[in-house]
């Protein structure tokens, strides 16, 4: 009978080939990560401005103090030596110390990862669910009023700048939702009040993120399902007397799901960066906001750190997508 | 269907604990928007305005600035006297003041703090300049601090150094690594740190031991907002009680909101247009690429005459600024300059003067210098500031009237800074905030603050280097008689005004708004016309009076809304799970 790939996950077949494949992917990812480290280091040094001077701006310092600070942070050393030191630190898990906060970059990023994952994770989950559902429904009843309307709405959302939509939503909803932050300072410390408060604060940023990204899931799902629509196995399935609903759910959709899954994973990595504007509009204390603040400095160690983490998440998600493909698609596994 | 049942059950559980939470007696809280980042809670490291303001809540200085007129008044020390040679100062710390943990505040705490800054470089990070001229700080007894200075120091009653408790800080290891976020803090100021969540909020509780008396409300919360727009919205919605740093448009937008009270105050900030009058290093070696005509003071004066400052204030500042003369704003009347002969807006006179000075107009209407170089100037501004864009266009059209072409170039802040310190500009927008003590802002225009070389930036603002100005600067720094010093400071600004290394375009008003329905009044500084936030001191927060019956339990409707949302989310989530489960089950059977 036809495939049911979602539950067939045993990788027993061709074990050594799979291992080699995984090793190749991971090796490639490590190489990309190395490139990111190099790029991040040299790229941000092109930003105009002396980080030491920016650091002391508006404070009463003399030149001796500036020279001393520069020496302290190693900015007076040759650039290659600075790079060597940076890489050496990275290998020991030391991403350096922020010039502005005077705290380790790892600590700062650690503090911000949670809120970003919560926001981006929730909105991605909802956007994917919504996008897939609308895409499937639209493709199955192609050119119906539902299809046209949902595609139109999705495209409008896709075309809207996130910061604009965010501000608009915040204004239109009036007093219903908080205007920013992750929780009210006066919320009692217990788990439920805190969780509810965070959920309340998450509504608008989540809605904004969902509205601007779900269109791509919907459209990819819709078009890949359309490609399957005239396939012979669907005719066979119908000939067996299966209900339309069953034909769609059990035969067409699983086959059409592959490109969408790839897209979802590629996008999860990118979405962390994409949240910068939304985090800024809603003062959400996440990684995007931290990157934005680091740029204004420029706070070089912090910029490098966030760059490595953001680029790293894209790379990791790519590898995951590759590996998941193996599980989902027997054809990839066989080759 | 069983799953759906459990989902509904879960929602019920969620909603239950909410009911008591909403009705519990809430502490009376002042919620304040904080837009600038706090770089550190460690008072020895904290340099940003927001951080020093937060630091003041916890730690008193040796002296304070009066709320009414900013004169030195009692801080940790109640009285002081100086020796006849102006080199030795004796401060008396009175009996009876206590840290928030009940320990007495003594002269030893003062001696500990100052000596730490004089011996530990890290401790001198933020405020080291105040003690750089100290010879010694000794504590003969618990009530007396004796400070000997190397040379007379005018800022002895304006030492902006938070005094920390010795019994806590002597146990701190490396100052540079100490975050000082332990709660509750040991405070001498009106508030005690009670919770710190980086990037979300900073919470304080009233210090019951505060020697002036405890504040009139229970808690003070600073809540982060990334943009002023968001903070204004939060104020409008009642999530906040106090916001500052408003722009003219934001201020006006709150005018008709019920429950919101506005405060238009004299500000400490000014906007200026710096003219590249000859950027050079300390040794006088020219750097950068400024237009040579700007070295001619006649050209600079003509430019100043051609710009209508009142019009800029009206159109760009929305009327919320005061006209500028010298760098020191009208909010400090002792030092603010009122020029003997104010320079009137007079493009016709400017044209005549330029004609006479040897800058005839070319065929295209643009003046040409003796060197044959047309007067085409670049004007550099910040892309991030609407002010620069609007004022830039205005200045462009004003200078066109006197035959000077201007090309407005808006660039990123970092690039602007880089071009500014390298002297690579003709005209550039800049601005500063000023302190009650004028020394620092005046020092920015001395020859000595120019850079060592083209590649090591100095602290200069204008590259101004003028013998007369420098002589006056040295005199005022050593002048301890307030009236005489004030006179010297005004003379310096007059020199600055006449030589035009920069045109002070205006002193921005400080625009603030608060919820008049939760807090009825705040102590402003100076009084009248002053600010609530960003004071020299924390009178605004300390003196806030809550509206008597104002309960802060206003979360009724939104609580139910949250419940609604959670129900929807759980239902949708549950539905999805249910579907997935069903599909999984049938698929499993098929295998």
How does the SSE layout of this entry go?
The complex is a heterodimer of chains A (335) and B (591).
Chain A: H1 15-44, H2 51-55, H3 63-72, H4 79-91, H5 105-140, H6 145-159, H7 162-172, H8 191-228, H9 232-239, H10 244-281, H11 287-296, H12 300-328, H13 330-334
Chain B: H1 2-15, H2 18-23, E1 29-34, H3 49-58, E2 63-65, E3 72-74, E4 79-82, E5 88-92, H4 107-119, H5 128-131, E6 134-141, E7 144-149, H6 166-169, E8 191-197, E9 201-206, E10 219-224, H7 228-237, E11 242-243, H8 248-253, E12 260-265, E13 269-275, H9 297-306, H10 309-315, E14 321-322, H11 347-356, E15 376-382, H12 386-400, E16 405-411, H13 413-421, E17 427-433, H14 439-443, H15 467-478, H16 482-499, E18 502-508, E19 510-515, E20 519-521, H17 539-542, E21 545-546, H18 556-590
Parallel strand pairs in B: 1-10, 15-16, 15-17
Antiparallel strand pairs in B: 2-3, 4-5, 5-7, 6-7, 8-9, 9-10, 11-19, 12-19, 13-17, 13-18, 14-18, 20-21
Helix pairs in contact in B: 1-18, 9-11, 15-16
